[in-house]
Amino acid sequence: MSTVETMRMFLGDAQVEGVPGSDRGLAYGDGLFETMRVHAGRVSWWDMHWARLAQGAGRLRLRLPDRGLVEQQIEALDATPGMDANNVLKLLVTRGCGGRGYLPPSDNMPLWILSRHPAPPSPRASGLHLRWCTTRLAHQPVLAGIKHCNRLEQVLARGEWSDAGIDEGLVLDMEGNVVSATSANLFVLRDGGWHTPPVDRCGVAGVCRAWLLSASGARETRLGVEEVESADAVLLCNAVRGILPVARLGNRAWLPHPQVRALRQRLATANPAFIVPEDNV
């Protein structure tokens, strides 16, 4: 077992050694989380991640820990001897402890966990291979967009395949609109412009998605299966892996597209965590 500390857990301001059995995140998924890329010891898009966390906390009426204390603990965890300066940071915040039953306590101390994880491997140079998932996402506008801890739909969708040749799966909502991949947002190039599904009824408003909406001038558009499969180019994005070109979706294949390459280069310029070696030749 590694001697490098990779996790710290707090109840309010006090560090604790384990998750209490009465934690509402454990019992009900009553919480939020952010997964962030760390490059050279710096958390990419930290302000945007905290803003999304705060938005989610407002929706759930959930108390957040003090931001200054969280930042202090991130620095302390990063300074742990032997810690790789390029990794993934996860911040999970639950409502904290409560009795049995759904009624949330009125003023709980939040339980929050910081953990470090290895950076993901580089995607295949030719682009991702995708499939369609049969699991559908339910509409729930109150929860749409935020990164809440109820991810059973994504767990079921991701459990649909074990083929190492498939990198991701695309999911639809109950009306047959394409929403996203299981763990990334979707952008398609059609008629010279970029489009991404809205996340007003389900799905997650990704941090990299927000950057890409601005950088690409993309429009939020409801998309069907045929509109994705007939697109000129397709990409996925998330805050850990950046922009990921798509090479295949079922029987549909795409060649590398210059607009995707240009967006990846813009992202690498804005955020060195997402420099891709083959884009520098």
Keywords:
single chain; 281 residues; alpha+beta; D-amino Acid Aminotransferase, Chain A, domain 1; D-amino Acid Aminotransferase, Chain A, domain 2; six-stranded antiparallel beta sheet; 7 helices; 24% helix; globular
Notes on the protein architecture:
The chain has helices spanning 24-28, 46-60, 67-78, 152-158, 207-216, 225-229, 258-270, and strands at residues 7-11, 14-16, 31-39, 42-43, 87-94, 111-118, 128-137, 168-173, 178-181, 185-190, 193-196, 219-220, 233-238, 242-249, 252-253. By secondary structure, it is an alpha+beta fold. The protein has two domains: 7-118, Aminotransferase class 4, branched-chain amino acid transferase, N-terminal domain (D-amino Acid Aminotransferase, Chain A, domain 1); 128-272, D-amino Acid Aminotransferase, Chain A, domain 2 (Alpha-Beta Barrel), CATH 3.20.10. The strands form two sheets. Strands 7, 8, 9, 10, 11, 12, 13, 14 and 15 form a nine-stranded mixed beta sheet that branches. A six-stranded antiparallel beta sheet has the order 2-1-6-5-3-4. The termini are far apart. The mean pLDDT is 93.
